[in-house]
Amino acid sequence: MNFPDLSVDLGRGLILPNPVGLASGTAGYGFELRQLIDLDRLGALFTKGTTLHPREGNPPPRVAEVRGGMLNAIGLHNPGVDHVASTYAPEFSRWSIPVVVNVAGGSVEDYLECLDRLERAEGFAGYELNISCPNIANGLDFGRDPAAAGRLVAAARARTGRHLMVKLSPNVTDIAAVARAVEEAGADSVSAVNTYVGMKIHRGIRAPVLPGRGTGGLSGPVIKPLALAAVAQVRAAVRIPVVGVGGIMDADDALEYLIAGADAIQVGTATFVNPAAALEVLDGLLTAGERAGVSRLEELHHPTPSSSGDGLALSR
Ligand SMILES: Cc1cc2nc3c(=O)[nH]c(=O)nc-3n(C[C@H](O)[C@H](O)[C@H](O)COP(=O)(O)O)c2cc1C
User: Fold this and answer.
1) pTM
2) Which residue from 177, 170, 126 is spatially nearest to 148, judged by alpha carbons?
3) How many helices (H) and strands (E) does the chain have?
4) How remote is the CA of residue 289 from the centroid of ligand 1, in Å?
5) Of ligand 1's atoms, which has the minimum distance to the CA of residue 167?
6) Residue 166: is its pLDDT beyond 50?
């Protein structure tokens, strides 16, 4: 066990050895990153969004750099649930990092069929439902409609005893209402947030850089203040654990999320800049904890009478 003890119990059997996870879609299924870093030291790997059928995703260009971040319109490129269940999951069972499979779909039936096929496999610790997906039935994202999100989560809850995390979309008027709906429907935790809708214009061709609708998902440090606000709103709205994600580049950023009310965090875009970013976040939190002489993670961001009393300034 690391000292200080950084483990986080997210409920229903999902215990992260530490609060630093890799965000969905920024580390694939872990196989490439494993060759570069010691993946097993991290708290969790959230896989690429997995769909019922394999998807090639959108044709390139599907990523674009912007000041302080990036836009992506990958289009859920993934090998499909059967490949994940039969080929990847047995590999995951040999790893010590908990793997959480991110699941996406266009209809409730898609999501449920994915879960049913994954339920027959071992080797992963739970699900992260990506509800920022267009609902085939009404064209709206599940994540934009609290009632639709609640119905999806209730149906998913009935299918699995594994941990069920729900990834919230920030592209909504009231993220707290969606968080409450999925909590009531049986979610064990929520992760916040997915990417923000953004656009980059190419002045030369007088058109958006990304094809199709021209929009993409905005991520990276540019979204951190927005995402922190969303995490604080969600924290105030629900009792279940909240996993914070958006623009975390270093341990100080991670600490800010913990102070805002997150129980754990995910590192996404930073991994594209530096494959070891998440490990450096973890090491930074460990160093801060050791320096402060705390024995539990909570003492780092929730100062107690027994801690140094200087909890908010521990990252100095
Ligand atoms: C290239 C790319 C692909 C992504 N794919 C997914 C995905 O498949 N499912 C999902 O829930 N989130 C996906 N995300 C969103 C991230 O998991 C994360 O929520 C978001 O990027 C904000 O965190 P960051 O600023 O640290 O990257 C993706 C993000 C990027 C940059």
Assistant:
1) 0.95
2) 177
3) 11, 16
4) 28
5) 11
6) yes
